[in-house]
Design a protein that fits this description.
about 90 residues; alpha+beta; Alpha-Beta Plaits; 4 strands; about 30% helix; globular
């Protein structure tokens, strides 16, 4: 599976309460179950107007299909090529 970062433009998403976020996650989970094992959601980061989601998927098209089924946009899909953190500097 390849790892992707998905940027979703969702106006006002940062102001949603926990119930609304739970409902959104439920919609996503339903679409994921339909597409399993081709797409897996790892986690999402919520900002004022966007979410940035980390997914494992067999292809970009599988992510686009999840977006169609869940009703959430996938404005940008970027394949993650690697991960670095502070410990990367330590040899």
């Amino acid at each position: 599976m390849r790892k992707f970062l998905i940027e979703r433009e969702i106006p006002g998403v940062g102001r949603l309460d926990s119930c609304a976020l739970a409902e959104a996650a439920g919609k996503s989970n339903t679409a994921l179950a339909e597409l399993a094992p081709r797409v897996q959601w790892q986690q999402s980061y919520v900002t004022d107007e966007r979410t940035f989601c980390i997914y494992l998927a067999e292809s970009e098209e599988a992510i686009r299909e999840h977006a169609r089924r869940s009703g959430f946009p996938a404005n940008r899909i970027l394949e993650i090529r690697g991960v670095i953190d502070p410990s990367t500097a330590v040899r």
